[in-house]
Amino acid sequence: MTSSEGEGFTFRTVVPVEGPVESWMTGVEAEMRRTLSTVMKEGVWNYAKTPRNKWIVDCLGMVTLAGSQVWWTWETEDSFRRVREGDKHAMKAYANKLTDQLSQLTGMVRGELTGEARRKVNTLIITDVHGRDIIDTFVRDSVMNAREFAWESQLRFYWDKDMDDLNMRQCTGLFRYGYEYMGLNGRLVITALTDRCYMTLTTAMTYRLGGAPAGPAGTGKTETVKDLAKAMGVQCVVFNCGEGLDYKAMGNIFSGLVQCGAWGCFDEFNRIEAEVLSVVSSQIRQASVSRLGQGFVIAYCILCEHLYQGAARACMLPHIKQQ
């Protein structure tokens, strides 16, 4: 499988391309997830045994991002453990280590790299800067315990040995990595507001609810949701809503989201006619309580309804207080 940027990987098991397209395409998707799960496990395992610069070049882009996040989480909690055992300078030492890692990535960017490797390093710098800033905040504010909200509220990555899978935690939420192949499509710069949006959306998913980011045009509502989907390895499908959408079209969209397990991101959701919204609400409810053949709840497909507040001809939603 090859991405639009030219990065690719080979399936561990050959998938025959024969018969109905809905059959072999489903097999391709399943094998993609199985192969990426194996590649991710190998990447996380090899991180500790390989020089970081070489590990970054050798691994897939999504493996470098998720794998480095796994080890960032482990090293941060290990620093908390060392502080608890009496080493009060453990967190500051780890902050210095992260700064050194960023200096190494800066040196790689200035050196000779292939186009793929340069994209990986540029994206990794974004997540590493955010990780370094969080640790610097812990040092500044004397955060010394892994149970403090400052740490619990972060999007943390763990390799669960019992499940033999990559999990993510934030606050009380637990999520499994989606293994949707992302290629080298980059990441957003993560700010404090981005972290708050992540926390709100993951908390909503914990309670089997959706999210409704609201704000002026061009502030990054859609891109924030897409970036969270990238971080969690989930496909995110964006739809631009308008007056022409009726309940039948929305039903087809929800049916597709339910069947493929993707997130649905609906831009300018308040442009839909009020008469259609009443039917759409029951469709969302039905999708949230239905189940797939594998047995897990469909509500994992978050429905992010975005509001564009200054739009002409925009109808008022009765349950949304507009500012």
Can you tell me about this structure?
- With 323 residues, the chain is mainly α.
- Helices cover 51% and strands 10% of the residues.
- It contains 10 helices and 8 strands.
- It has helices at 21-47, 52-58, 61-84, 90-110, 115-141, 149-152, 192-206, 221-231, 247-260, 274-289; strands at 156-160, 165-170, 173-176, 214-215, 236-240, 263-267, 303-305, 307-308.
- A 3-stranded antiparallel beta sheet has the order 1-2-3. Strands 5-6-7 form a 3-stranded parallel beta sheet, with helices on both faces. The protein has a two-stranded parallel ribbon with strand order 4-8.
- Strand 5 (236-240), helix 9 (247-260) and strand 6 (263-267) form a beta-alpha-beta unit.
- Helix 1 crosses helix 3 (61-84) and helix 4 (90-110) packs antiparallel against helix 5 (115-141).
- The longest helix is centred in the N-terminal third of the chain and has 27 residues, at 21-47.
- The chain is globular and about 60 Å long.
- Residues 291-302 and 307-323 have low confidence and may be disordered.
Q: In percent, how much strand structure appears in the residues? A: 5-15%
How many beta-strand elements?
8
N- and C-termini, Cα separation? 46 Å
Q: What is the general shape?
A: globular
Q: For the residues shown, what is the average pLDDT? A: 85
What pattern of helices and strands is seen along the backbone?
Answer: HHHHHHEEEHEHEHEHEE
How are the secondary structure elements laid out?
Elements: H1 21-47, H2 52-58, H3 61-84, H4 90-110, H5 115-141, H6 149-152, E1 156-160, E2 165-170, E3 173-176, H7 192-206, E4 214-215, H8 221-231, E5 236-240, H9 247-260, E6 263-267, H10 274-289, E7 303-305, E8 307-308
Parallel strand pairs: 4-8, 5-6, 6-7
Antiparallel strand pairs: 1-2, 2-3
Helix pairs in contact: 1-3, 3-5, 4-5, 9-10
